[in-house]
Amino acid sequence: MADEQRPIHRKIIHIDMDAFYASVEQRDNPDLRGKALVVGGSPEGRGGVVATASYEARKFGVRSAMPSKTAQRLCPHVIFVRPRFDVYKDVSRHIREIFSRYTDIIEPLSLDEAYLDVTEDKLGIGSAIEIAQQIKQAIKDELQLTASAGVSINKFVAKIASDINKPDGLKFIGPSSIEPFMEALPVEKFYGVGKVTAAKMMAMGLHSGADLKKLTEDEMSRHFGKAGKFYYQIVRGIDNRAVQPHRETKSMGAEDTFPYDLTEIDEMYTELDKIAETVVKRLERYNLQGRTITLKVKYSDFRQITRNQSFAKPVGDLKTIAATAKSLLLNSGVDDVKIRLLGISLSNFGELPQKTGKPGDAGQLMLF
Ligand SMILES: [Mg+2]
């Protein structure tokens, strides 16, 4: 197997809020609870579009992106509510704050949906299922809303998984279950397969992942272009796309609390070298470089300082990061200090060189 085709075992969670806008409206207005509800444009005049339908409205076939007039025809008693984006944004910020307790590798897809890479979670919990449970519980406790989570080793499977037990669901698909799961999956459920492609696949007698698997990589490319190659890999459980933190990730770094206080400059430098190495590994993994390097120092009396230096161009190499951290430390004063913690982080990432295409945009799917 070629290197780029080997599956990378990450711990990925896809979190998706349940009927987000509608649930927020029902939470804030008890009169709307248990009611068929559409958040979106009014059906009057030329008519608006459904942004989100409550589960009560979905029972009547009301769906997102449907004209509000259609929604009213399907469900005559449906209540239309204007969206309050400021409120949704606030809730979204709070949700991301909850995510950030566990990881900095967060890729938001919209206000109510995100991928999280918890391969190395901040709290050292280790179990992605446990983390997903805790996040769901925090969202419930702090926001009185429910979310569904999908847990797997890659983005593709995690996203499909989050949809399986909605609402308030949690579905784990482990490495050994991925291939059977993908084989059983109907082609129209394949993330990125639109209606046109699905119809083409059906016409070719391809109804499930198992059917797709019978085609060679060349055949997949010939029939479905660049996306064909993506499907070829995905049906074998291979999706090495990294969770891309975008600009949403404000900083990435590492820190270490020492078993005894550091008093010698040599020890401090040695520790900074180690921490810088960890930081560089993390940056490389997520293809990030930052323009600002920040040093954090905590003393034995728990006093804490941060010092930073910014660069004209983004940096991410070990030499620069370690040297900058050391000079920042030196400038902060190292005489007669007892240091219990050192940390280095990079921020000010700016634009990333990689794009994160929408599913279905075949040109941007090839991110491996
Ligand atoms: Mg949602």
From TrEMBL:
The record marks Y21 as: Substrate discrimination. Mg(2+) binds at D16, D112. The active site is at E113. It comes from the Bacteria. Pfam families: IMS, IMS_C, IMS_HHH_1. Its main location: cytoplasm. Its cofactor is Mg(2+). Monomer. This is DNA polymerase IV. It comes from Mucilaginibacter myungsuensis. The lineage of its organism: Bacteria, Pseudomonadati, Bacteroidota, Sphingobacteriia, Sphingobacteriales.
